[in-house]
Amino acid sequence: MKWVLFVFAALLTLWTGAATAQSNGPLRIEITEGVIEPLPLAVPDFVPSGSSANEYARNLSRVIAADLAGTGLFREVPASAHISTVTDFGAPIKFADWKAINAQALITGAVSVSGGKATVQFRVWDVFSGAELGNGLQFAGPVEGWRRMAHKVADQVYARITGEDPYFDSRVVFVSESGPKNDRRKRLAVMDYDGANLQYLTDSSAIVLAPRFSPSGDRVLYTSYESGFPRIYVLDIGKVTRRVLESSDGIMSFAPRFAPDGKTVVFSLSQGGNTDLYMMDINTGSRKRLTSAPSIETAPSYSPDGKQIVFESDRSGTQQLYIMSAGGGEARRISFGKGRYGTPVWSPRGDMIAFTKQAGNRFHIGVMRTDGGEERLLTASFLDESPTWSPNGRVIMFSRETQGANGRSSLYSVDISGRNLRPVSTPEGGSDPSWSPLQR
Amino acid sequence: MGIKTIRATFLVGLVALVAACTSPLDSGNAVDLNGSGTAGSASDPTSIAFFQEKVGDRVLFAVDQANLSAEAMSILDAQATWLTQNPEYSAVIEGHADEQGTTDYNLALGARRANAAREFLVSRGVAGDRVKVVSYGKERPIEVCSEESCYARNRRAVTVLSGALTG
């Protein structure tokens, strides 16, 4: 999908000089570890150009508001409290009306639909200083992609106000689950990060596990039992075609993950009861053994520069986290707390490792620095596992299974500060999420 | 008598093959994880039903362990004897874990358990090429409660028989 994006030339000229002042202005959220009072935000319905744009005008504003409020950094002032309505995108803003309801940020927009194409314009306003934040922008694209346009607007707002890279225009591939615990049906599904536009990628005739996006978001690695044995596959999302990567007799392969180059795969191979790490060239199929110990080595994840791999091993007697060179060799242990550590995932920023920790009868999702320092547990429940990072490294999505005979697995997200734990809506149960990079 | 037995066994094998062929993509779920289904009568000592009910088709493991208990070895001894006497069968040993633990680790642990059972059978004279292993990790519990009484039965290695594939 090609996106047209241009800056209003006049606005660019007008606001270039104000950019520095704006960045130090009041409309700014510094994302820190402290408690945050959400910033009040108003997103009146966008102004439709012609009746064909009516439904999109409202839906766009709703998705944008949901994206921003969903971060926990913003609080939407509901439309019922609005004094002003915005009926002309070009008209001056009545700042007094928005100040009166304590909306500190205001997003106005307009949408037109013509020939299957939607064009969306928007502006972000700092209500208290009565000035525009950044430049007005316009997106154009196929009208059926209107949700992506909304996410792109929200991404712009988020980036301007927080100074962070955004993450709303992204997707999640996961295992959709139905049925009771002793007859669970699993199939791969992909959806927008907020649960919209869900598409199933496999049927549930064979167990599927742990899908992982490629660095460009076009392919997914996963494990399937369709041969009767767990084997790793690569699936093309656009064509929904798949091929097996490892099919040797007497071998089980699982826990695959792409290297940042998109050509190399690291995975676990189990033979004769022993599980070790291997890497494979996805095009030639040639593989290289990275570990050779009688212990369990699994759940590998590359550093963003592709030079190192973090993985779990029980070589010390219990599951712990280790980092080694991407070519194998000596590994250094990084987890030393009480309990068992598994499923490490390197953050997209490179500075943190997300993991699952099992201590006592509880499971936690946590993060630590790559040297093992500053361990922080973000969640606690009967069974949390499978963390995946948002493209900007601010949010972690994971799966949570409830206790007991009627136990069910579903997806949640949590800020890396530990705040803003939220369920992610899926039609069935869900597990093993993998967050895509930001879409282009 | 001998001829009759072989024919019966052949029929069992044929049924298993047909069932497998009707759903080629369904092998992950088609396998009956409680055993090999109702194949034959337990009164026939060469039947799968006899193996399941009289010999014992599964061994259980302690938490996070893959070593065989004395009880497990005694069951596997009986399995090895039976497999030696009934060479027309082959087996897949399915290793399983309880729900405590992460997916990947439990897959590796299930592989250890299945392999421990396989190595014991081979050490007792069962030909290695008759016994394959597969791990289901925590994907296929037979008991659903979140208590040790259920976990203990889910931490298992199950010897699933199929008729001999000739040729």
What does this protein look like?
Chain A is built from 5 helices and 32 strands. With 440 residues, chain A is mostly beta strands. Chain A folds into 2 domains: 4-162, TolB, N-terminal domain (Rossmann fold), CATH 3.40.50; 171-435, Neuraminidase, CATH 2.120.10. In chain A, strands 1, 2, 3, 4, 5, 6, 7 and 8 form an 8-stranded mixed β-sheet that branches. The relative contact order of chain A is 0.10. Chain B is α+β, with helices and mostly antiparallel strands and 167 residues long. Chain B has a single domain (2-163), classed as 2-Layer Sandwich (60s Ribosomal Protein L30, Chain: A), CATH 3.30.1330.60. In chain B, 47% of the residues lie in helices and 16% in strands. Chain B contains 6 helices and 4 strands, in the order αααβαβαβαβ. Chain B has helices spanning 2-22, 27-30, 48-56, 70-85, 103-123, 148-154; strands at residues 58-60, 89-96, 131-137, 156-163. Classes of the chains: A mainly beta (440), B alpha+beta (167). The A-B interface holds A 180-182, 184-185, 203, 205-207, 209-210, 224-230, 250, 252, 254-255, 268, 270, 272-275, 296, 298-299, 312, 314, 319, 340, 342-343, 356, 358, 382-383, 385-386, 401, 403-405, 407, 432 and B 23, 25-29, 31, 66, 92, 99-105, 107-109, 111-112, 114-116, 118-119, 132-136, 139-146.
> Biggest interface, and residues per chain?
A-B, 49 and 39 residues
> How many helical elements of chain B?
6
Name the shape of chain A in a single word: globular
Q: How many strands, what sense, and barrel or not for the largest sheet of chain A? A: 8 strands, mixed
Number of strands of chain B: 4
Task: Produce a short descriptive summary.
Chain A has 440 residues and is mainly beta.
